[in-house]
Task: structure prediction
Amino acid sequence: VVTALLGALLVVVYWAIERLAARVGTRGSLQWAMAVGLIGMVLRLAIVVGGLVTIALVDRPGFVDAIVSFVVVYTIYLGVRLWRFPVLSTAAPNGRALTRRHRGVR
Result:
């Protein structure tokens, strides 16, 4: 149970770093935003992989529980994120509907 909770906690840490990078990245130039985004991606990947490797070294039988709980919670996280902020929306950022002229789906 503990390793499953740790696997789910890795998703929460992943989300927190993503939110922090998104907030910090909006304060500055485009180069700053790209640097913060890249550093955020590397940091998230390093923490997730490092956390899973640490779990595997400490509790080998519980590693499978950690992986499964990480994948399940991460899938739920992605589903909620896509439901809340649809990527393939038919509206432009200004709220107007896209037309054929703008190569939008209509």
Notes: The mean pLDDT is 85.
